[in-house]
Design a protein that fits this description.
single chain; 27% strand; Carbon monoxide dehydrogenase; 12 helices; 288 residues; oxidoreductase; 3 domains; Enolase-like, domain 1; Uridine Diphospho-n-acetylenolpyruvylglucosamine Reductase, domain 3; alpha+beta; oxidoreductase activity; Uridine Diphospho-n-acetylenolpyruvylglucosamine Reductase, domain 2; FAD-bd_PCMH-like_sf
């Protein structure tokens, strides 16, 4: 069995304590939440932090509540809590739906929404869902608290807009307009459950029957989680019929670096991204 390199363990009980530890140990430290991404990397020695800052005991970061036209979700809210939330299911069906596709029950019992987006794995489900929902991500560091739009948060593979001494504390999800439907679908790797190609879609239909707003995110196929803006542009202002949707999803990965590996070539992933996007958009429309 693989064994991590030696490290010092620091359990934090408050956000301020965690930030102080990050300031103290700098680049030699990593933050541990659920641990389902970090611990395997440490066991394979792909990541070798000298200091591990465990924030799992900060109970104040675990909640789901409605606040001023948004739903606030604490960074340490687990996948299981999200999956079971009636409040989230009412407003954002794709969030508990997508969460139910993550790993297995043990993973969902420990994994956290904040940990997933901070890790920014392009094949993970949560970054794409958060991006499609146009979430605001609240982070805190030595200089205080700031809010980052999801569009600006996911920078590259395993790279976010977080500063080294900041941690994610909350996600704010704007409650969608009337006549909005959402969905999440993916073609999953059977062994890891990660997305080979996935899509999160939020579609709003106007009073005239045309698409008044669309937010489409692609996961798994590209080197970073992306908003498929060419697909969105091809839907908005149009009738949501089969021909419009088929034409729109052909642009799912336009202008993006698409992954090619043992699980699928670039050509295969481009085609599967379009197929999954079509299915997801149709499901979102059915839910309006």
């Amino acid at each position: 069995m693989s064994v991590p390199a030696a490290f010092d363990y620091h359990p934090a009980t408050t956000v301020d304590e965690a930030i102080a530890l990050l300031q103290q140990y700098g680049d030699e430290a990593k933050v541990l939440a659920g641990g389902h991404s970090l611990i395997p990397a440490m066991k394979l020695r792909l990541s070798q932090p000298e200091h591990l800052i465990d924030i799992a005991r900060i109970s104040s970061l675990s909640y789901i509540r409605e606040e001023q036209g948004s739903i606030a979700v604490g960074a340490l809210t687990t996948y299981s809590q999200i999956e079971k939330s009636d409040l989230l299911r009412k407003h954002f069906p794709l969030l508990p739906e997508g969460t139910a596709m993550i790993g297995d029950q043990q993973v969902r019992n420990r994994g956290t929404i904040g940990g997933s987006i901070a890790h920014s794995d392009p094949a993970a489900d949560m970054p794409g869902i958060v991006l499609a929902l146009k979430a605001e991500i609240v982070v805190r560091g030595p200089q205080g608290q700031r809010t980052i739009a999801a569009d600006d948060f996911f920078v590259d593979t395993f790279t976010t807009a977080l500063e080294p001494t900041e941690i994610v504390v909350e996600l704010r999800l704007p409650i969608p307009a009337a006549q909005t439907g959402s969905a999440y679908e993916k073609l999953a790797n059977r062994a890891s459950h990660y997305a080979i190609a996935g899509c999160a879609a939020v579609i709003t239909r106007g009073s005239d029957g045309t698409c008044s707003a669309a937010s489409i995110a692609i996961t798994g196929a590209t080197v970073r989680t992306i908003r498929a803006k060419a697909v969105e542009s091809a839907l908005v202002g149009k009738q949501l019929d089969e021909s419009t949707i088929s034409a729109a999803v052909s642009h799912a990965t336009d202008g993006e670096d698409v992954i090619s590996d043992i699980h699928g070539s670039e050509e295969y992933r481009r085609k599967m991204a379009a197929v999954v996007a079509r299915r997801t958009i149709l499901k979102a429309i059915e839910r309006i």
